[in-house]
Predict the structure.
Amino acid sequence: MKPVYLDNNATTQVAPEVLEEMLPYFHELYGNPSSMHSFGGQVMRKVRQAREQVASLLGASPEEIIFTSCGTESDNAAIRSALASNPDKKHIVTSRVEHPAVRALCAHLATQGYRVTELPVDGEGRLDMEQYKRALSPDTAIVSLMWANNETGVIFPIEKAAEMARERRILFHTDAVQAVGKIPINLADMRIDMLSASGHKLHAPKGIGVLYLRKGTKFSPFMVGGHQERGRRGGTEATPSIIGLGVAAELAQKKIDVENTYVKGLRDRLENTILNTIPNSKVNGDRLNRLPNTTNISFEFVEGEGILLMMDEYGICASSGSACTSGSLQPSHVLRAMGIPFTMAHGSIRFSLSVYNTDEEIDFVIEKLPTIIETLRSMSPYWKMGANVCR
Amino acid sequence: MWDYTEKVKEHFLHPRNVGEIENPDGVAEVGSIACGDALKFTFKLDENGKIKDAKFKTFGCASAIASASAMTEMVKGMTVEQAAKITNQDIANYLGGLPQEKMHCSVLGREALEKAISFYKGTPVKTEQEKIVCECFGVTHEEIERAVRENRLTTVEEVTNYTKAGGGCGNCHPMIQEIIDGVLSQLSEAPPERPKLSNIKKIKLIEDTLEREIRPALKHDGGDIELVDVVGNRVLVATRGACASCQASNQTLKNFVEAKLRELVLPELVVEEVSA
């Protein structure tokens, strides 16, 4: 059974073009780009090209691109560097809906003498910009806000937030892992100091990340070692992955319109049909300011893990914000921050699409899902009373 | 993805006895939508006092549905007295086991059974009068005590996996620890004996654990620790580097160093900081 893969915010398939470009760099062209022989030198030139491709996708210059091992490393490098280069400042501003890569790091830093402000969001997952402004203080070393939320797809007004930080000479970092490749980004026009991205979210392999570091921004390396990445990130370059990421970045740039027309069209059809055919279902998050590929839908009175496992029987892959899928006992921190009632949060399912999804796949999900929800609801002690609730 | 047994999956996809019995002899509702698991259970007896029919409705994950399905299958044909003897472990065993984090699903099944039997007998349900220890998930003292006793639990984390107690704000962790300590001191032979450590072996083991498990982590944050002496079960240490001046180092000593040593060497160890 070929899976119907609608979990692209978790990870994506490596694009065939990407894989093809990478393969020779494992066993034929395996030289070290730092070597003084031309066998390594030819790899160095490919790494340089990849850096240019990634810079072009972001609207940055190549020397502003640092290759890392993943999004989490980029987030750690950015935030820790900001703190190290501002030793007198002890305040961090972030949000309640960040990815664990930022959230857990900030929680850790809070035990190390830093003060952390986690900005709340409203019921649609939006920031209050007045509250954000009030949170910025002379003691603030760094602001770290995600560009787009991994669970709901809600997009924060990053350009404006970065400007407000810049006016107060505060470093601004954004975790753009979900945004890069899905919405147009032009860093040359913005006042963002640091940005994290991850290869495997845009059809490059796992294990490769990017940290964008604006020219002139002070940096204190997270990985100390060799001279690689201009001394900003030690460690021999993961050449096949870097070269793959370069190709993926170029593809993403070419397909950004497809993402915002074709993929968005599939997503909207999936979402609207579900809302129309399944009672007591509701979209979580601001539907206007959202990634084109993501929808997070709650099915009242049923539990997400059950939905996922029943979809799994048909090969449909998605994810859930329910407590039962996380191993913790609380539903998703994002949905809780939005004040989504527990009756809704436990039954939330995230579908995240990619350019590789087809109309037939969406039809298949639309066909199977209503029966799955109905089956689970028929087992739920809450459903009868729920059926009387109009919305 | 959870590592569910085939039997759990089978009971989830094809649950037995879904529904509600009209005019039941026993009925119970346990759990709540807030905590993510809820179960309504009803049963009917035949003229010989045996459970003729049992049905359930569940809001919850796959293992909650499977546990309820299994429990209803198990009780059919039993007398109320026989059914009352079923433990959560029996339900989990029936399903070929459950992941640790999902054991609370089997506890929910056992609770529903117990409450429905109380309803049938007309005896007051003790748990409702009992003191609630975990406010977040409404878990009572008795429920925790019973889970600890029946499953020989020794840590707060295990209690959380089995009962959900302590999985929210964490305020009740000291109370849960007290319950564990109380039960363990009652059980004469529990906890399972560790091999006796000679003093020399104990000190060696403490040194190894510090070297292998603890110092690398502290060094990562610019700190360090040195073993000064071991007196009985008191481990005397001195902090170095960033730890020596860090306000949080006391917490690190208790929550990390002591916890690690207790886990890997001896549960009775107490870490104390000395200036040396």
